[in-house]
Q: What sequence folds into this?
């Protein structure tokens, strides 16, 4: 079975903190994705990556950056967390079929 | 860019009834249409998908139909069961690096 693991299920951070969300996949997929999920808005793509050290902006990249130093790991970085970044964050890997992690629920106070 | 609209946002049915969720897309170049199911506390999981060269696909109690001319596709669940209760997402892709555009989601509740 494909496994996509997100490092934390729940996180609580303060406004202005730098936040790292980690994602690891075990299927040697080249493509990896970060989404945020908000009620009534579905899943919105933040960033994605085709390969190591490659990154592409999604639909809502503002306030976020990413890092892909190894093929299996894709990190989402909130440089200075703000309250409007309180959300569920989902990582996925794959090509046509995307396999999702269980999500990280981030609260920024 | 691509936009995917999904309706309804919530759907409540009695066990054994059918459920239908509809999506429309804007980019005529879209050629891949997956459906994902998200159970409480879990990430979305693919349940069925269809490509633009096919009009209908069925897998046991679930089926998806695609109308390329009208640019809409639908998920049909027959003989619903309580374990079908979840949030369902449609998505569309034109195969640009596997990027998917998701609909807003439908919360399906199946009452025993």
A:
């Amino acid at each position: 079975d494909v496994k996509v693991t997100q490092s934390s299920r729940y996180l609580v951070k303060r406004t202005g903190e730098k936040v790292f969300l980690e994602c690891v996949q075990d299927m040697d997929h080249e493509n990896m994705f970060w989404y945020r999920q908000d009620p009534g808005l579905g899943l919105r793509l933040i960033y994605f990556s085709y390969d190591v050290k490659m990154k592409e902006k999604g639909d809502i990249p503002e306030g976020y950056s990413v890092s892909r130093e190894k093929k299996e790991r894709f990190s989402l970085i909130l440089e200075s967390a703000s309250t409007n970044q309180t959300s569920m964050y989902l990582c996925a890997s794959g090509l046509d079929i995307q396999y999702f992690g269980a999500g990280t629920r981030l609260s920024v106070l | 860019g691509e936009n995917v609209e999904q309706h309804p946002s919530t759907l409540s049915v009695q066990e054994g009834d059918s459920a239908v969720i509809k999506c429309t897309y804007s980019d005529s170049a879209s050629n891949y249409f997956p459906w994902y199911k998200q159970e409480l506390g879990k990430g979305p999981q693919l349940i069925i998908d269809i490509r633009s060269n096919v009009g209908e696909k069925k897998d046991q109690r679930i089926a998806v139909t695609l109308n390329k001319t009208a640019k809409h596709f639908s998920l049909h669940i027959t003989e619903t069961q309580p374990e079908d209760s979840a949030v369902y997402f449609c998505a569309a892709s034109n195969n640009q690096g596997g990027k998917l555009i998701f609909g807003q989601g439908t919360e399906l509740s199946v009452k025993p």
Chain A touches chain B at residues 4, 31, 33, 35, 40-45, 48, 50, 56, 58-59, 90, 92, 94-103 (CB under 8 Å). The two ends of chain A are 37 Å apart (CA to CA).
